[in-house]
Write a structure and sequence with these properties.
This is N-acetyltransferase domain-containing protein. By secondary structure, the chain is α+β, with helices and mostly antiparallel strands. It has a single domain, classed as Gcn5-related N-acetyltransferase (GNAT) (Aminopeptidase), CATH 3.40.630.30. About 25% of the residues lie in helices and about 35% in strands. It has 4 helices and 9 strands, in the order βββααβββαβαββ. It has a 9-stranded mixed beta sheet. β4 and β5 form a beta hairpin. α1 crosses α2. The longest helix is centred in the middle third of the chain and has 14 residues. The protein starts with a strand and ends in a 5-residue tail after the last strand.
């Protein structure tokens, strides 16, 4: 899995050329790490699919605020094909991650979950999925269980919307 990661802060892939906005290394299933400003720009380009992504809203927040929010949460955002996936550690449970995706395709989210289990030793994940989010299909396909609802948690489009809470425990937590 290490050869499938690219770091845009250094601009190089594992033995590869400099990274661009959508590098060839970002094929589905491969993760390309974006720095905070690049992640903010990519989330803005994703539009409505990125609303609620790790507690951000690129429609109402500007790029510096998005970058600061992601940095403050210690979040990492990756590009995988046309999709964005990301995670942030749960400050109250260090081996648990909040995850997010902009695509209904489960492959990028699966790659992120494999990365978290192998390299971050996460034993469980939470996904906060706004109503109508394209992420809902990917979360269901990756084995998350719906565990609750946060009523009116997200203000979007002039109305308060519910956010569904999904939980997934790692297959081999130790």
């Amino acid at each position: 899995m290490t050869d499938s990661l690219t770091d845009t802060t250094t601009g190089t892939a594992a033995g590869g050329p400099a990274a661009t906005a959508a590098p060839p290394e970002a094929a589905a299933g491969r993760l390309v790490l974006l720095d905070a400003p690049a992640a903010a720009a990519a989330l803005r380009a994703a539009g409505d699919a990125a609303r609620g992504f790790l507690d951000t809203d690129p429609v109402t927040q500007n790029d510096p605020l998005l970058a600061r929010t992601l940095t403050g949460a210690e979040a990492q955002v990756f590009r995988s094909g046309d999709a964005l996936v990301g995670w942030a550690p749960n400050p109250r449970q260090p081996r648990q991650a909040y995850v997010a995706a902009t695509s209904p395709d489960p492959a990028p989210l699966r790659a992120l979950l494999e990365f978290l289990a192998a390299y971050r030793r996460c034993t469980s994940c939470l996904a906060l999925v706004p109503e109508g989010s394209p992420m809902a299909a990917a979360v269901a396909a990756c084995g998350f269980t719906a565990t609750g609802v946060l009523p009116g948690h997200l203000f979007q489009g002039g109305a308060h919307r519910d956010v569904l809470v999904h939980f997934r425990k790692a297959e081999n937590p130790c």
